[in-house]
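quick one: adenosine monophosphate bound model?
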Amino acid sequence: MYHKYDANYTMIITNSTEHMRELAAIAGKHKTLGFVPTMGALHQGHLSLVKTSMEQCDFTIVSIFVNPTQFNDPEDFKKYPRTRTADINLLHDAGANMLFIPSEKEIYPIPDTRVFDFGNMDKVMEGRCRPGHFNGVAQVVTRLFNIINPTVAFFGEKDFQQFAIIKQLVTQMELSMQLVSCPTVREYDGLAMSSRNSLLNDKQRALVPLIARTLFEAKDRVKYTDVSFLKTWVYNTIDANPELDIEYAEIVNASTLQPIDAWGDAEHVQLCVAVRVNTIRLIDNIRLK
Ligand code: AMP
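yep, here:
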């Protein structure tokens, strides 16, 4: 396969499911396929996944699809940033081998009515605040996995709950692919990179680094604070800013996603938050233990 520095390097772009399936099957015969699913409006966080895939796999496929079934709020779907030309240029410069950029009809020729069961994993945090969200994520991810049949799929730790649920999905469906979770890429001031950050105005942008700063400080406080006190402290610290409306701050067992009561309740503990800035919703998380 051509490397991005080869004179013959080119990125294949297709919007056809059939074409994507065919090419992935051909490439997958002799090569390991790395797959990075995205909703576009790409930033360095997405590109770090692409880079990791290129390091670990022979052939890297990226998809861009703003999946309607995972949006419980039609307004949010409508205003989700779409920057197709810039995305194509970024992926080409990064050296991705193939971009799949399907229409809604290509992914859902008929409505997807499948209902997934993740037990308690989607009853908390994002699943609780955005009913149906993870069912929509599972619908699109299983379709994309089915079309591409990757060797490894790469996701960001930024969407912590999503990764845990996709891991569960892959186990439930007995898929043989590997899943890799990549660290959250942050702006210079700590703000987790997100496509939604581009929707913030200057004043809002100046305020939101408080979210990451609070998470970093919470990690320092673990040594001398109990779980429920720390949770309340995080909640109040963010909520003290009248422009920031915190939806949840949860301290959870990273494998079950269920809230814990004491530090000894889990080996790996994650603090996850969702914050609204007017109509823009941002999420972030940090490992506490
Ligand atoms: P999205 O386009 O928001 O659906 O994200 C596509 C993939 O990129 C998901 O696996 C995200 O978790 C990941 N991602 C988004 N933001 C970041 C970030 N700041 N750092 C690392 N990965 C990210």
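The longest strand covers residues 244-253.
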